[in-house]
Amino acid sequence: MSTTKKFLYINRKAPYGTIYAWEALEVVLIGAAFEQDVSVAFMDDGVFQLVKGQDTSGIGMKNFSPTYAALGDFEITKIYVEKESLEERGLTLDDLQHLVWEDEDEDWAEKDSIRLVSRAELGDVLAEQDVLFNF
Amino acid sequence: MSMLHLVNKSPYENGNLNTASSIMNDGDVLLLIEDAVYGAVKAGKASAMLDGCKVSVLGPDLAARGISEDKLADGVDVIDYAGFVDLVEANDKVQSWL
User: Which of A114, B35, B76, B95 could form a disulfide with B10 if both were Cys (CB 3.0 to 4.6 A apart)?
Assistant: First the structure.
């Protein structure tokens, strides 16, 4: 017997100044292993986590950004990025990693994982969840 | 008497960059490190705080965050760790806005 719940992980911190982003990624992957309906949201400084081209060789920290590309393999296919947060920071979707997942029902067609949403739309996403995790 | 002002937090998260950049005197230098380097991105709203300030950013922190130098506000100087030491040495005091 199992009950699937809708889990949303909300990421609001930049990637290297604190440990939150990395910890969130680990918890997201654990949650995925329990076969829950997992979504991940990036807003405020959290949108910086997905910026492509990160190179941490000069700061002595692990570059965990390649792991986001693996989320699709863990059946995490709903990644919400808040539009207002991107715009305020001078970013566009082109500055972010292109995250995809493969749809088993459509002959493993590659589909975009990132959904660009307004703050109001993200509010609706929050409202439909069973469990919210904040990082 | 010149002062080196250090900021290490994102300007989108707290008011440290705003405080530092608005309290600086002529001849002072602002150095952005860690998450504060996001404040130097020209297209970002926070870069307006840097107007009129002499600003340096730490290159390794930019690279870690995927920010290329051509995205920076005009006049921002990219330095390495040795340049950080030079700035500390060249100014009379260091003020860290924690």
Answer: B35
